[in-house]
Amino acid sequence: MQKLIIYGGGKRCETMCKLLEQCNSIEIAAVLDTNPDKWGMKIGEYLVESPERIHDFEDAKIYIAVASENVADDIRKDLKQRWSYDLKKEMSYNELRLEIFKSDQEIKKHIYENVNINDCKEENILFVSYNGFSLGGIQAWTKDICEALLKDGQKNIYVMATRGDYEVPSLLKDRMIYIDRQETFSRTSVLNIIDAIKDKLPCKVVTTQPDNTMLAPYLIKCCYPQMVEIITTIRGASKGIYKAYMDYKEIPDIFIGVSQDIKEDLIGMGIEAKKVCSMCVPFECEEVLEREYTEEASIPIRIGYAGRVEYSQKRIDLLIKFVQVLIRNHICFEMEIAGDGVAYQDLKEFIDTNHLENQIQLLGEIDRLEIPDFWKRQDICVNIADYEGRSHSIIEAMGSGAVPVVTATSGVKEDIMDDENGYIVPIGDYGAMAERVEYLASHRERLRTMGKLAHDIVYPKSRIETHLEFWKGILSSH
User: Fold this and answer.
1) 4 CB contacts (<8 Å, ≥6 apart)?
2) How far is the C-alpha of 412 from the C-alpha of 424, rounded, in Å?
3) Residue range 61-70: average pLDDT?
4) In Å, what is the CA distance from 177 to each residue of 196, 198, 204?
5) What is the pTM (predicted TM-score) of this model?
6) CB within 8 A of 67, min separation 6: which ones?
7) pLDDT tens-digit profile of 190-214?
8) What is the mean pLDDT of residues 285-293?
9) CA-CA-CA-CA dihedral for 237, 238, 240, 244, to nearest 10
10) Are 440 and 379 in contact (CB under 8 A)?
């Protein structure tokens, strides 16, 4: 049996110890921590010990059980320099979970005893929408594509989700496969998903996260290779997201990124080109753009932001600095911010403290049906994120004729031609963003021209018909 050292005696260690006790497929050799105050503490059945013991377990793999990647990097340096430890033995969280479940003989036994392949008939298509239809873009996309496929005459389309307080469209009421909500990374959760899938074999499973909904069908596939195909859509392009998918790279049969950038990145990381493609998620967009712009210089130019109001990824801290530059440079503007998140109260405090209530409006979350009208009120769309997969908010704004002034995140170069239908600035460069807005405020005549070009380039990508044909091709392949 494979032996494992868990390095770090905190919450992540507790979670992993509990999972290993449930599965009994990998042996914990030791729990180590640099903090002497933790030595002698018990986590489950294991005593936390000093890192000095690391060389007593030469054949063991190691899992660094800390949340912060910066802290993990410091631990790696210490392991290498102080303890001369071979870092090739390290397993990431996802690699470890994959190994645990693949080695779990009880799960294999459960699959073989409960899956009757003699009853398998037509292939089913299972779209995973774990939280139903109650949250954001992924859930809305799942609902829309499933309804489109069913209306097109496709059979055997299902949605796998947990029960919750959300409305299920009438077309999908008989197409829901409900799974019990369990602790996210527990063995019980994996078994529940396996049981939800087993009655729909053979099937294709379309996942949207590198989690148990991707792992569970893979475990069935390990037992019955011809019964399951796994398609995963990748919505983000951060280092952490890529790392998770690379840890699970053996699982998907097809990777679908929401931008050409993601596709190229995956191929660059070693995924076979034939297994990777890209898509653009459809959205509400009129064929002919009809709207007005703030062309009179004495009237405030209108700036809009729609998205999560958070520091991580969305960089609301830089959005505040961007606003401060506009104010300092005496730019005549008004701004509407649609969205909610952990930075909402800080943003409200900034507005109140600086008496900007009449200039910047916080709308909170708005209904998706209100999005087109929101963007038609704006002359400019801003997005200062550190990373995106392909910002749905930006292309929705362009579809309503708002001129994008955004950072160079994944996918923007597919839609924005710099200085023609928008502006792309370096990641984090709020000053450059303010300069572009100042230019547009001084050259209002460009708003209509650039806004129309923005609309015209994204309109063909907005149509559900084009997206439907893409998915019919994906689902009929292999």
Assistant:
1) 20, 26, 27, 28, 29, 60, 61, 62, 63, 91, 96
2) 8
3) 89
4) 7, 11, 14
5) 0.90
6) 11, 12
7) 999 999 998 899 999 999 999 999 9
8) 96
9) 0
10) yes
